[in-house]
Design brief:
The protein has helices at residues 17-25, 44-53, 64-75, 80-91, 98-109, 125-134, 147-168, 184-198, 211-216, 218-229, 235-241, 263-267, 281-287, 290-294, 296-308, and strands spanning 6-10, 30-32, 113-116, 139-144, 206-210. By secondary structure, it is α/β, with parallel strands linked by helices.
Length: 312
């Protein structure tokens, strides 16, 4: 039963995952989670150890999104007190498998379908495989974004993160992923991982959509996503999905769990109308010295993948 109650969005960081997953999660029959980071290891203890290694001293070794989710589902509100309660709850269950924890969360939101959006899942095929093994009947949405705009967005993110750290001396926008994600190679490898694995899935289990298209024509693409999931696709349901700002995770969380979604999105979570422009990939390759930096062999594979995804 739990298998069919989960939509897993696969995309690299800065791939519109926060806004798109939150939009889809506002469907009356769905529930949008923030980043849970639960497909990296088999037990909560192993997963939390992996997470703490990526964070600076002085903060909890737990994903912000997971703490915020537990606080919201247990107490109906996210405050510093309910976040601390979530920490205490987790520490008593470190022996649980991550599958058991995810099943627990899905039981709490029953009968709604959960919407999972952790970008780091695509860093390794083993992570995607674990998600598929846990939930073999789940739906998988491959969300794409133009590689140039994704790279520019990542550069902006790390510049903002650097300024915040200089100002506060605290890692306020903690991420599981290493800094290399800003590189075009990481964009390529993560999308390649998604393609290689989802191509082995049953027909209809994975849907692939350009984030630019979905955000530019939300009425059309959100209706298609709803029909694919087998849930309501009427105008009222689609309209609900066009208001990500109504999600309890569409704003900065309380101390010490600020994150869980993209910071820029949480500061202004409303859907922006209008067509999203895609930069010229050909122009960037020709004038941005990408071939010289990344090499001819890589650029050949990169160009093949981008054309496959509809970017030029």
């Amino acid at each position: 039963m739990a298998d069919k109650r989960l939509l897993i969005i696969l995309s690299p960081p800065r791939g519109f995952t926060s806004v798109v997953s939150t939009m889809i999660g506002q469907h009356p029959d769905l529930y949008g989670f923030p980043e849970l980071n639960l497909f990296f290891r088999d037990t909560i203890e192993e997963t939390m150890y992996l997470h703490v290694k990526s964070r600076k001293e002085g903060l909890f070794p737990y994903p912000d999104g997971l703490l915020r989710t537990l606080a919201q589902l247990h107490d109906g509100v996210q405050t510093t007190w309910t976040i601390y309660k979530a920490v205490t709850w987790l520490e008593k269950r470190l022996h649980w498998t991550t599958k058991k924890l995810y099943d627990y969360l899905l039981d709490l939101i029953h009968p709604k379908i959960g919407v999972e959006k952790t970008p780091g899942t695509a860093t390794k095929i083993a992570n995607i495989e674990r998600a598929h093994l846990y939930y073999p009947q789940a739906h998988f949405l491959h969300l794409t974004r133009h590689p140039i705009s994704a790279k520019r967005s990542m550069e902006e993110f790390y510049e903002e993160k650097r300024k915040l750290e200089e100002k506060s001396k605290v890692d306020t926008v903690s991420q599981v992923l290493p800094l290399e994600i800003v590189d075009t190679r990481m964009w390529y490898h993560m999308h390649r991982n998604i393609y290689n694995y989802t191509d082995t899935m049953a027909l209809g289990q994975c849907m692939r959509v350009k984030g630019e298209d979905l955000l530019s024509e939300p009425d059309l693409y959100l209706k298609q996503v709803a029909e694919w999931l087998g849930v309501r696709s009427d105008p009222e349901a689609v309209e609900a999905m066009k208001h990500p700002e109504t999600s309890p995770y569409a704003k900065v969380g309380p101390f010490p769990a600020w994150a869980g979604n993209d910071g820029k999105f949480m500061r202004d979570p409303k859907l922006r109308p209008g067509r999203i422009k895609e930069p010229s990939l050909k122009g960037e390759i020709e004038h941005g010295n990408m071939r010289g930096v990344l090499g001819e062999d890589f650029m050949a594979r990169f160009s093949t993948l981008t054309r496959k995804m509809g970017y030029c």
